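User: Here's a structure from my thesis project, written as structure tokens. My advisor, Dr. K., wants to see whether a designed sequence matches the one we expressed. Can you design one independently, without my sequence as a hint?
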């Protein structure tokens, strides 16, 4: 696969559907925000196109056009692709783990939440970037699709619960689509923090609705706290799907003439 500059992108209509919920809107997010990269099997008349942002990759096209090492640039990523890509993905990496996912769309009002004294829920601004960065590596998955904490803080697409200038919970648009905005939440575990996350989610969802978009939510099938929080925030299940977590690139097999004899 070769990286494509934005000036060389083919027409995306037909490759990635417009107005899709969840990670399926990743192509729209990259086009709109400028965060992410594009890949193809060849520069002209590509047969396979991939969009990468954060640790996610969407693959579309004809997998028969790919050689065994073509996907090596997507090590340690979450790959989402039609089922026909499964054999070439498994061939490319030494470890491929299918992960069951659940996609929710907001269809009901959120349950009420009460903020503890001294806690304020507000939109993040560029000045909040250092505080967001101070949350450490655990916060990286939340702001990875915005190029880091400074990108997310300055995007206007994140809301946080603050106490004395410190964010205790953050909810943000993770993937910005033309119709849906897939969200992500960062919060400490525990009942109190879940209420803060719910308050941040409520503010974010109102903000998304004001933009004329619909919030969506993607989480692991085994993420019971996340699924419960989604339900409390008014999200209902739309569909289930599988994505692939990739490991290291599979080492090429040695030819008979180069194998070591024991």
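Assistant: Designed independently from the structure alone:
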């Amino acid at each position: 696969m070769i990286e494509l500059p934005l000036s060389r992108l083919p027409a995306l209509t037909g490759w990635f559907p417009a107005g899709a919920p969840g990670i399926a809107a990743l192509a729209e997010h990259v086009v709109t925000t400028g965060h992410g990269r594009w890949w193809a099997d060849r520069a002209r008349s590509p047969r396979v196109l991939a969009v990468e942002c954060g640790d996610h990759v969407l693959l579309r096209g004809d997998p028969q056009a790919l050689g065994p090492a073509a996907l090596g640039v997507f090590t340690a990523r979450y790959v989402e692709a039609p089922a026909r890509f499964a054999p070439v993905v498994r061939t490319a990496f030494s470890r491929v783990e299918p992960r069951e996912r659940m996609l929710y769309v907001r269809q009901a009002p959120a349950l009420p939440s009460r903020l503890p004294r001294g806690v304020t829920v507000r939109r993040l601004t560029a000045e909040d970037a250092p505080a967001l960065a101070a949350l450490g590596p655990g916060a990286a998955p939340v702001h990875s699709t915005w190029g880091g904490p400074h990108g997310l803080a300055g995007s206007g697409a994140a809301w946080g619960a603050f106490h004395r200038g410190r964010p205790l919970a953050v909810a943000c648009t993770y993937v910005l689509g033309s119709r849906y905005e897939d969200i992500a939440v960062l919060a400490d575990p525990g009942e109190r923090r879940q209420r803060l996350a719910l308050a941040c989610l409520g503010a974010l969802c109102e903000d998304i609705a004001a933009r004329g978009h619909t919030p969506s939510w993607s989480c692991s099938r085994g993420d019971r706290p996340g699924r419960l929080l989604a339900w409390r925030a008014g999200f209902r299940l739309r569909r289930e799907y599988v994505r692939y977590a990739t490991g290291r690139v599979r080492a090429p097999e040695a030819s008979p003439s180069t194998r070591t004899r024991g």
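When you compare it with your expressed construct, this may help: Confidence is low (pLDDT under 50) at residues 254-262.
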